[in-house]
């Protein structure tokens, strides 16, 4: 594992900003045009990262949803380029602008719309942003967009509302309005264990990606501003459990969560589980395998498979 202090500045910069990764907001205008010209239409792909600003407990970042999703997006983009010859562009320019959910009254939350406010038949600020972005990117030569979403409120508001049979999703709206292909993944809920809000797995992931992960993920945590919660402060969260099992599904009990404002949105936290995900039996040595790293890899493999399936299904037209 490299340490930042041991690297010469040029190598540090290359690890912090790998040349394999293309971000729309960092590319030059000529660079973008060259990419479009050099890339066959069937291989032109934009990965859109999306989250929201809201509390994830007292200590984790308000923008954590997009930050974690961006680490996953970077890894998928890197693997697509190295292993499959597909070099996507990452679009993260409105990554923190999303949907208010039940955390709306916890300090720090900033969003545009309430959960379930989205209605495909009505205009809204968020929908206008999506139309403006997708319409412009299509003009630039892109027709395939894959959303890597980090916030459950966004997903339930815009992409999948199972209890509303006639729901028209953002995917349907954008495909019909712009003649593009659009798909997505709620990345931290698919593959491995579904992470609940501000719970043991997300706290463990943040600690792992900042301190113990391979270089690629650890530098991604620097790139996107992730920092772990102080472990000595986590005792205050220990024993929190406001997750109910309904028909085999784990459901956060938000009325109970919000009745404890000091928790600032934590649904479930066990210090024992947190340590089990990170450390060997001695409680000090980072795990060599299993734990949170294994769960993250399961999510990455699932996400990559979904993106490849989307590319293959839409790239032959």
From TrEMBL:
Cross-referenced SUPFAM superfamilies: Creatininase
Signal peptide bounds: none
Transmembrane segments: none
Top-level taxon of origin: Bacteria
Pfam families in alphabetical order: Creatininase (PF02633)
Family the UniProt entry places it in: Belongs to the creatininase superfamily.
Protein name listed in UniProt: Creatininase
Organism (species): Candidatus Chisholmbacteria bacterium RIFCSPHIGHO2_01_FULL_52_32
Source species taxonomy: Bacteria, Candidatus Chisholmiibacteriota
């Amino acid at each position: 594992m490299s340490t930042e202090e041991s690297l010469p500045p040029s190598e540090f910069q290359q690890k912090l900003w790998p040349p394999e990764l293309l971000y729309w907001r960092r590319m030059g205008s000529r660079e973008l045009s060259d990419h479009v010209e050099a890339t066959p239409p069937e291989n032109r792909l934009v990965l859109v990262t999306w989250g929201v600003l809201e509390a994830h407990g007292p200590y984790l970042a308000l923008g954590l949803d997009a930050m974690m999703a961006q680490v996953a997006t970077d890894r998928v983009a890197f693997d697509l380029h190295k292993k499959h010859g597909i070099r996507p562009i990452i679009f993260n320019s409105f990554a923190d602008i999303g949907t208010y959910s039940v955390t709306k009254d916890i300090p720090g939350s900033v969003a545009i719309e309430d959960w379930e406010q989205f209605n495909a038949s009505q205009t809204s600020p968020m929908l206008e942003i999506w139309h403006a972005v997708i319409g412009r990117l299509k003009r630039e030569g892109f027709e395939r967009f894959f959303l890597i979403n980090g916030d459950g409120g966004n997903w339930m508001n815009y992409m999948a509302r199972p209890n509303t049979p006639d729901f028209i999703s953002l995917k349907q709206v954008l495909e019909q309005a712009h003649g593009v292909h659009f798909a997505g993944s709620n990345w931290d809920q698919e593959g491995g264990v579904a992470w609940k809000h501000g719970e043991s797995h997300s706290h463990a992931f943040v600690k792992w990606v900042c301190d113990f992960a391979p270089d690629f993920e650890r530098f991604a945590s620097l790139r996107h501003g992730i920092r772990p919660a102080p472990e000595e402060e986590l005792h205050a969260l220990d024993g929190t459990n406001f997750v109910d099992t309904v028909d085999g599904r784990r459901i956060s009990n938000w009325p109970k969560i919000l009745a404890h404002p000091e928790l600032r949105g934590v649904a479930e936290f066990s210090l024992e589980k947190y340590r089990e995900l990170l450390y060997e039996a001695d409680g000090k040595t980072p795990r060599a395998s299993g734990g949170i790293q294994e769960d993250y890899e399961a999510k990455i493999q699932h996400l990559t498979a979904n993106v490849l399936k989307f590319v293959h299904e839409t790239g032959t037209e």
